[in-house]
Amino acid sequence: MPSSTLPQAGDLNLQAILRVNWRELLIVRFFQLCAWISVVTSFAIILILTIESSAFFKTVPFWDYLTGTNWSPLIEPRSFGVLPLICGTAVVSLGACLIAVPIGLASAIYLAEYASPVTRRIIKPTVELLAGIPSVVYGYFAVTTVTPMLQRFFPSTDVFNAASAAIVLGIMVLPMITTLCDDAIRATPRSLHEGGFALAATKSEVTIGILVPSAMSAIMASFILGFSRAIGETMAVALAAGSTPTMGLNPLTSMQTMTGYIVQVAMGDVPHGTIEYQSIFAVAATLFVMTLILNIFSQYIVRRFTRSWE
Amino acid sequence: MTSSDPQKTAALTQTTELDSQFVDNLTRRRLQATLFHGIISLATAAVVTLLVLLLFKIWHDGQSYLNWDFLKNFPSRAASRAGIASALAGSMAIITMTAMISVALGIGAALYLEELAPKTRAGRFIEMNIANLCGVPSLVYGILGLAVFVRFFGFGRSILAAGFTLAIMILPIIIIASRESLRSVPNGIRMAALALGATRWQTTWHHLLPAAAPGILTGIILALSRALGEAAPLILVGGVTYIAFLPESAFDSFTTLPIQIFNWAGRPQEEFHGIAAAAIIVLMGLVLMTNALAILIRSRMERKHRW
Prior knowledge:
The complex is a heterodimer. By secondary structure, chain A is mostly helical. Chain A has helices at 14-59, 62-67, 83-114, 117-132, 135-153, 162-186, 190-198, 203-214, 216-232, 235-240, 258-267, 275-305, and strands spanning 71-72, 79-80. In chain A, strands 1-2 form a two-stranded antiparallel sheet. In chain A, a hairpin with a 6-residue loop joins strand 1 and strand 2. In chain A, helix 1 (14-59) crosses helix 12, helix 3 packs across helix 9 and helix 6 runs antiparallel to helix 9 (216-232). Chain B is mostly helical. Chain B contains eleven helices and no strands. Chain B is flat, with a radius of gyration of 29 Å. The chains are: A mainly alpha, B mainly alpha. Chains A and B meet through helix 1, helix 3, helix 4, helix 5 and helix 6 of A and helix 1, helix 3, helix 4, helix 5 and helix 6 of B.
């Protein structure tokens, strides 16, 4: 629009206007470049994961990787079956959700419906603070507090075990679920409350029977996002879960997750071009695809099932 | 009960029966409501207790190891002589680098998407892209950094590569926070500036950006505090745990506080857990201080702009 406004009055300085527009065009182009960097990032991620993992899959058949039940990349005889890592990731992440989902939803309901404004003003920042604590700190907490506690109840617990990782991971995912569910419940229209109360429903009946169902799509989406976060979480799990790839389901034993494996290899100085080096790209690609699918799925749920309150 | 009509009597007894049923029901429903209230209060209390427990535990473990020597010494094989000098310096250098790279790019991208871009398919594509980048695990950014900055650009395992990796990681967070802040500026400001003959850029630079500054700044500081606590991508980019010198150039190798904590917490000896906790106290102090700074700036600047 500004470029089409030709100066008409005689006293307008045409040159000044042109200069402004020329400069403006340059600035806009620069900012456009900034915005495209994110697209470049995405493509770079996909490109790198594809190139390096395809080098890996030249040595290890793709099908063997995906269905193999033995992961021993560093010790001869080598074997690259990713299922034990996926199993470890699944046990830890599902365990985390087992903790985070009920507590997260319950505290969100409390914050949205029951808490007085003063209580809310105190608890909300507390929850956000929990989200701001770095991942290694949770790892430390798992190793020094949660594991000894577990060992007191179950003496057979390993020093590094999946259960302690799952518990701290649950605490880490909790703030996100609480915040998202809280937003979703507060976004339900006032008239739904009033309608429920007008029918003489108790407060818990209104909450469980009306508010939670009507915010269900966003609540489900938050659960999936939490699960996806748990899968990608690294430092706490690398510290607490141990480094034994197993196919077992016993959370009291040491397990290795996908992220744990990548960190283990990165900590040892692996030379470029070796099969170990390539294997972290293959595992990272697996991780990336899993989280991407979950994230897109949660976006789909929100888009597809969110009702509009007119 | 003077009525002799048996039908009426029957109806009456039925109502009292319904009444008593209702009362029974009501007692049960009220009990349910109280129970529900109790359960969710308990869950919320558990969340708060967890935070208190966590902070208390770390303070309890670490405070006796926290002294001036601890801040001044370099990592050592003996826990009693180990310190965090190089880790603290590395964290600071990387965070500065990250801020220098990501702030301008993030605000630029947000301005373009929110104010300057025509609402075309390309704009929506970029938006979708940013939303998806937010969900990518931090470890994957480390992989990207390893392949692109360490190898392809040849930065090596350096502070520069680490700074770029973290900058790319927090860029989506900064863009989203900045866009939200820009969106909250009332449309009247835009219209008024444009009506007075300002160009789109002049409107943005002189009016929208200052008005949105508190929100943008808060977003940036929160993103940086996240980068400060992040260890996974830096381990991939080549953070090592034993560095006995302070960084002098951007191409020096590095260690950071989270990496140092990771290393110490993973050891079996009790004293190393102690110094890990002490390092955590320093790290958490920094993170909390940046967060407090964000809150302070926001409240200060919000007082200047009020609609």
